[in-house]
Design a protein that fits this description.
The protein has eight helices and twelve strands. Strands 2-1-3-4-5 form a five-stranded parallel sheet, with helices on both faces. It has a four-stranded antiparallel sheet with strand order 6-7-8-9, covered by helices on one side. Helix 2 runs parallel beside helix 3 and helix 6 crosses helix 8.
């Protein structure tokens, strides 16, 4: 999952970025409201963590303008504005969740997982497709009853494909989700990642749609 973090506090932003990257998320950290609005309009992210007190453009204005232009990316607002009126305005402006500072990073992770489940129509943290199982909470992957050790990026790739099982996921979408806005990606980086994931599972688990992208079938044996 590619998360855009919009936070102008350098200490808090760095702490959130480290915590989320440990949970296998790809994080692009922005510090300005105008940059955030541009990024949201491009819809390159799977989720946005949005501070409200931002330089350049207030976070609430960013959210209102993004929703006005039909941006559907899920947004969790993070702010010290804890009054009832502020929370109501944030949710009415289009926020999917509202988190009051200071907060525990464990709670932020749980809210991200909850919002991800809702977006994918899941009731629990576990995704199961035949012999393949992935737990979003513990990062555990089981294949044919055996635990499979994956790198953070391999886990993220598998999660994206399992959440969209039976559907083609385009190469460009995978690169955005796995590598974010800030990284220069080699021409064959995604292909190498898919190859290593297949080697740990099986070749038939991840199928290539030549010229377009990859998919996992609805049933994995």
């Amino acid at each position: 999952m590619h998360i855009i973090l919009v936070e102008d506090d350098p200490q808090l932003g760095a702490a959130i970025q480290r915590a989320l990257e440990r949970l296998a998320y790809t994080v692009s950290w922005l510090r300005d409201g105008r940059e955030a609005l541009i990024a949201l309009r491009d819809e390159t992210a799977d989720l946005v963590l949005l501070d409200l007190g931002l330089p350049g453009k207030d976070g609430l204005e960013v959210l209102v303008e993004a929703r006005r232009t039909h941006v559907k990316t899920p947004v969790i607002v993070m702010t010290a504005r804890d009054g009832l009126d502020a929370r109501v305005r944030g949710l009415d402006a289009g926020a999917d969740d509202y988190l009051i500072k200071p907060f525990h990073l464990e709670e932020l992770g749980a809210r991200i997982r909850s919002l991800t489940r809702r977006a994918q129509g899941l009731a629990v943290n576990r995704i199961e497709i035949g012999a393949l199982s992935l737990d979003l909470g513990t990062s555990e992957v089981l294949f044919r009853g055996e635990r499979i050790e994956l790198t953070k990026r391999e886990f993220s790739l598998l999660q994206i494909l399992m959440e969209r099982a039976g559907k083609l996921v385009r190469r460009e979408s995978l690169i955005n989700s796995l590598y974010g806005l800030d990284n220069v990606v080699g021409d064959n980086a995604l292909e190498v990642l898919v190859h290593t994931l297949r080697r740990k599972l099986s070749y038939d688990t991840v199928r290539t749609v030549r010229g377009f992208g990859y998919m996992i079938p609805r049933e994995v044996e």
